[in-house]
Amino acid sequence: MDIAIVGAGAAAVGLLDTLAATADSPGAITVFEPSPHLWRGRPYGPDLDTVLVNAPPAIMSIRHLDFGHYAAWLGMRSQAHLDERLGQPLVPRALYGEYLAHTAETALAVLREVGWRVRVVTARVIGVARSGANWSLRTEDGRGHEADHVALCVGGGTPQDHYGLGGASGFVDDPYPLARTLERVAADSNVAVIGSGLTAVDIVVSLAARGHTGLITLLSRSGVLPHVWQRPVDHRPQHVTAERVAALHHEHGAVTLEDLIGLLRTELAEAGEDFEAFAAELLAAETDEPVRRLRAQLDAVDDPRIGRRVLQETAHSVGPYAWRLLPEPDRMRLRRHFRMATSVASPMVPVNAATMMRLLDSGQLAVAVGVRKIEVAEGVFRVRRDDGERTFDAVINAVNPPPRAIPRMAGPLVTALLADGSAELHPAGGLVPADPRLHVVGDLAGGGPFITSSIAGIAAQAARAAQTIVAAGD
Q1: Which of 67, 80, 322, 442 is the most buried (most CB within 10 A)?
Q2: Cis (ω within 30 of 0) for the bond into 177?
Q3: What is residue 391's three-state secondary structure?
Q4: What is the distance between the alpha carbons of residues 110 and 16, in angstroms, rounded to a whole number?
Q5: Checking DSSP bridges between strand 380-385 and strand 371-377, what pairing results, if any?
């Protein structure tokens, strides 16, 4: 069996890790990745130490269902990065990238030991087509490659330039790596950051760490800031579990959003908590004043109630499985609350929240909603809002790519697959294979999980793809 893996980020690492554990017949693997930062992808390459992994180790394992795999790799290193308030290690993303690289290299070593031929091609794949029983891949250097199975692990899309500012002096279209882009921002400049999610938080915290003295303003349509992680408590979900979801599916032949709400309601009731009050608090995040909400979130880091903790854990562990079983009308209901849901499921860490709060209280940081237009005029950026106009010296784009967007670098490859009839676009975005020998893992997977950036979700997709490939070769 000859497997071509296009892309070498977290999805490829999860795929290789499962192949190493399950593939008993030797074959060949070719990994195509033009980036010099193998296995890390865009999010986990070398960067500032202020760019932290925004999640505890238990939900960052790239080995499917082995929730201690990443923590075991961290070992004693976790002590150097222990956050006292959260009681968990908060490591720079570049260190997490080392974990991904170690996992990939370990998997490749295991595969080589049992006879697999492995190579890495440092070129971008720009074309792929079915050729009889095989696939023919073409790289940008003009070379051809053959494979029995193709796994697309190309990562997420690129940030969108909603205001057409590309090419303007002082505009940063893609902030990562911050170590490079923030060097272009003068320390006393008046900075606008488009967006208010985790990327915007990274930018603000990193600017502060560099001694930025100018004003910073988050420009956001919603004004919703990420929630804040709470200190873990000794509670493991008993009702919101994959086993209970599977039982519902077996019993009724379907799983609805009301079924999932019922499981959460029971979970909270047994802990003596009121589901209705919890739901009202969650929905209020969509309309609450953002500074007040952030202050309340910081005050609740040690709150013993389990509601948000259960949602945050199970969104990553149970969510990808439950999402596949939900009927489309229920998925549409959840999509209407996507910004709030991602804010809860992917919170910021307390140390970053504290920095944000300090800057907000001092007046150096502000959150502005109702942006209508951003224009470049006479060397400055003019931002028109409902309540008037302000000018900025620099604008940094922190807008997340839409879920399941096609990465710019993968555009020619996706176009070739669609033209060949090997894949089709999913109505909700992403790519769906039309050939069982094509596998899409990660954000580009059509019909993939609701929270597409979840490492646990990526690990689950990668494991399924690897198992399907191995079964096809038996």
Answers
A1: 442
A2: yes
A3: strand
A4: 10
A5: antiparallel
